[in-house]
Amino acid sequence: MTKHRYFTSILVLLLLAFALTGCMDGLFKLQIKEVEAPTFSLDEDEDGTFMLTMSCATKGATIRYEYNDMWPNDNSIKYTEPIEIKENTVIYAKAFKKNHFHSLTSRFSKSFKVDPMTMEPAGGFFITPPIITLECPTEEIEIRYTLDGSIPTEKSILYEAPFVLTSNAKMIARAFRENWSPSSIVEGLFNISEVASEMAYIPGGTFTMGRTRGDGESDEYPAHSVDIDSFYMDKYPVTVGQYYLTMGYNTDYSYHIKMDVPATGNWGYAVKYCNLRSMAEGLTPAYSLHGSTNPANWGIVPATESDSSWRDMVCDWDADGYRLPTEAEWEYAARGGSHSADFLYSGSDDINTVAWYYGNSMNALHDAGEKMPNSLGIYDMSGNIREWCWDWYKADYYESSPTQNPRGPDSGLYHVLRGGYWEDYPANCQVSHRFIHVRPYTTSYANGFRVCRSAK
Fold first, then answer.
1. What is the CATH number of the domain that holds 124?
2. Chain centroid to CA 275
3. Residue ranges of the alpha helices (H) in 60-192?
4. pTM for the structure as a whole
5. For residue 305, what pLDDT is reported?
6. pLDDT band at 357 (very low <50, low <70, confident <90, very high)
7. For the packed helices 240-247 and 267-280, what is the interaxial angle rounded to 10 degrees?
8. What is the C-alpha separation between 354 and 349, in angstroms, rounded?
């Protein structure tokens, strides 16, 4: 009987405990609720100002927030009014209310990116150093740039004002503003010629043309007296930079080219260059074909010497535009005019001081103007690159050549080349040596040119 009462008492207590637990749970659920999570509204004013408003659906709740990676608690910043957002911002917010569970955390983010910037010019080929201008419409920014192709950082070179870029560069620029995402990069590849397009004045005079010292080839004889009118001549062979720019070649390159080595090309392209350069500078072109001075009307440059379509090219000797020198003008300038010493090479008897040839060139074409000039200030007339002349070649022309401004035979198969090149023998670099290329319209790594103008 006693045992029965004992078990009955335990059962009653258990039932009472379950009942109380259920009631408390219900009571708890009725009295303690979770606060709704904050929500965000971002509005932009007419002046471009962004204002952030926070709100909570639970009446009487207080919103607390922190910036960036901080988690809010009941001691965090209390939200009381809209917040101005003017830089990259991340906000975490919670809502709190007495006798309520705090809300879940809400996250807001807003990023600002600097506007795209511009680079002027945007790269290309330049025969004179360009002035670089960088601009960005976003206020309170700093523009940083590099010249080696690396991506700019906030520690890169600071752009302060337009500047002159004097050498090849792969320039990349970017604009920065504190606590903003930087602008997208702008980049340009600059191929800049450091060899100026300068001309030397060659005063007229009389000189002895042909072999004057030592032994030479039969076509260098007889030496004979020639009178030359004054003219202007390029101090340097036409360089790659000058050639590409004048010919309008594509400048969209992703790599640097050697801007200051002499351009290599055939006689036809040299003549075309002369007229294009004259037209670009507002001068009267010297050459015409089929009655036109515009190379666009000449057709393609002939590929072989058997193509006679350009053999009717005519030179207007009174035009003020650019042209190839005659063979006599070339030798006269190479010798330094009428009052210079009778050197074997252009400017010296020591080939190493004035010329690149097989003995010193290391099997490579070199930048124009690296050796010493002659007495007229003209470079590379011996070695480095052979140079086209206007004249048709005739082996015995000297036997009947006019004494006043000779301009070569009226016709022929090949045009004259002078000066020797970077892999030539010394004898071929002498000022009296004559050379022909059996394919005058075919480009060769050894053949280039320089231009001159009549001085009227």
1. 2.60.40
2. 26
3. none
4. 0.71
5. 58
6. very high
7. 70
8. 9
